[in-house]
Amino acid sequence: MSLLSACASSGGDGQSKAKAGKKTAKNPLGVNDTAKMEFVLFDGGFGKEYAQDAVKIYQKDFPKAQVKFSATQKIQSTLQPRFNEGNPPDLIDNSGAEQMDMGVLVGKNQLSDLTPLLDAPSYDDPSKKVRDTLRPGIVEMGQFDGNPVWIMYYAYTVYGVWYSQKALDSLDAEYPKTWDEMLQVCAKAKKKGMAGWTYAGKYPYYIPFSLYPMIGKVGGVDVLNAIDNLEPNAWKHPAVKACFEAYYELFKKGYILKGTPGLDHIQSQTAWAKGEALFIPNGSWVENESANVIPADFNLAVSAPSGIDSSDKMPFGTIWASGGEPFIVPSKAANPEGGMEQLRIMLSEASSKNFTSKVKSLSAYNGGTDGIELTPGLKSGVAALKLAGTNVVNPRLQDWYVQLQKEKIGVGALGEMMAGRLTPAEAIKKIQGYADEAAKDTTIKHYKHQ
Predict the structure, then answer these.
(1) By the 8 A CB rule, do 134 and 123 touch?
(2) Is the N end or the C end of the chain the one with fewer CB atoms within 10 Å?
(3) 319-328 and 362-363 as β-strands: parallel, antiparallel, unpaired?
(4) Cα–Cα distance between 362 and 325 in angstroms, integer?
(5) What is the pLDDT of residues 70-105, one digit of tens each?
(6) pTM of structure
(7) pLDDT digits (tens, 9 = 90+) for 358-399
(8) Where do transmembrane segments lie in this chain (predicted)?
(9) CB of 148 closer than 8 Å to CB of 113
């Protein structure tokens, strides 16, 4: 997760492009079979084995090509200079704390449009285009304005409230559907010496993983769209007020694990896995990232957020699910066809199954779970998606305005509110101010729901 945003610029003379290869049924993107292909992966919660396995398939398909694969946690400091010099790699997993700002990269024309990949035949079935094999929302997420698709999100993340079913059972409780029920469950937990909630206090932009879909559930998807569009007074909607006040009650009633504001994501997840807190807002990567601390009998589960009451605009089960792990092909890559072909391989059923079984996450490929024994968290995520049906929301602030979402809304306001240093009214006023500043800032590109 990023606290930094990129200062992309488009200097440098660039590198010479590899001559395109011949398009055939087996090589629909026309990859030059002797051209070097370079792939840089973010070395994070998903590890690198799934990508290395896909690279082996590329090497088998193009035995004369030299492939350079590397993994780093420092995406921006490693690659920004190469963008500036005009010699970026062919494929990048632009993720992690040093993620380069997507809005900036798109705004400065530094990415290739991935439409040729999406319109190419899928790796498994030539009668199906790649785009027809993807989960709902993946293509749209990669768009910013109009038709070009700049990003291929490879993982499919279910965001929500994560918990131990075993712990919930021990309280003789069910997952709460309304906020009154949530407070009752937290009171039960407190009596047993367990906090109701914890979260990544040092990175409070994790809080929106359950707070934003709750706002959508309470006020409808239009409220979230208005927030994404940086519309005046979007944050002053009654649904935002109701949800902020609900979360603030967790602080006021002492239901948040003591010391949470000082914990990072790993420390808060560890405390939660040890049973010190019942609920944590997170994404589905948490199962892999915390695998070494989650007990064998934990019975990991995820739920869509609780609502306020029966007046909510959307039903219980409304969840935030969307693409994660953004892959990009730079416009100045020497071998962009090679970068796209590597993605085409990764979007095959076999590579998708390999990813899911190795990293406990769904991929963008719509399927790929048949015959795999799903882990508890993954099974729960699939069930949550089934319950949601079409009630899936996808707030875009974290893609469109990284700094606004993470540093300002997250650290500057939500973190302060949850630590009791701001009231909900003060936090809303502050966030609306940040959003208005971003809307007026002519140095950043602005995006809108089409």
Answers:
(1) no
(2) C
(3) unpaired
(4) 11
(5) 999 999 999 999 999 999 999 999 998 789 988 889
(6) 0.81
(7) 988 899 999 888 888 899 999 999 999 999 988 999 999 988
(8) none
(9) yes
